[in-house]
Amino acid sequence: MFVFQLRLQLRASEISSTSTLARFVDQLFYNVNYAVVVGVATTGTGTVAVHLANKNSAPVWISAILTALGLHLALTILMCVKRVHSAYRMLAT
Predict the structure, then answer these.
(1) SS3 (DSSP) at 12
(2) pLDDT tens track for 30-88
(3) pTM for the complete prediction?
(4) Which of 11, 17, 56, 75 gives 20 to 30 Å between its CA and that of 69?
(5) Which of 41, 34, 33 is nearest to 69 (CA)?
(6) Strands, DSSP E only, in 1-93?
(7) Is residue 8 within 8 Å of residue 60, measured between CB atoms?
(8) CA nearest 7: which of 89, 85, 93, 84?
């Protein structure tokens, strides 16, 4: 909601939609949406891993997929933080 509201405020202000700040906010919006999709995929994969687990261990292949998705989600969230920082830095100057 924060990113959506920020984009609406940029549209209402005198900042051009082709400015670097507007592009950062648009990219941030896409990154947040993608992070949600990856988070849902990670949760689904974790659920499958729990159901496939024998006694106390899951198959190696599902563990590898779950680890890769978790790392990918963490990196995507870091990209979102980077975009927020860049947009804030542009607003502060």
Answers:
(1) helix
(2) 899 999 999 999 999 999 888 888 877 778 888 899 999 999 999 999 999 998 888 78
(3) 0.78
(4) 56
(5) 41
(6) none
(7) no
(8) 84
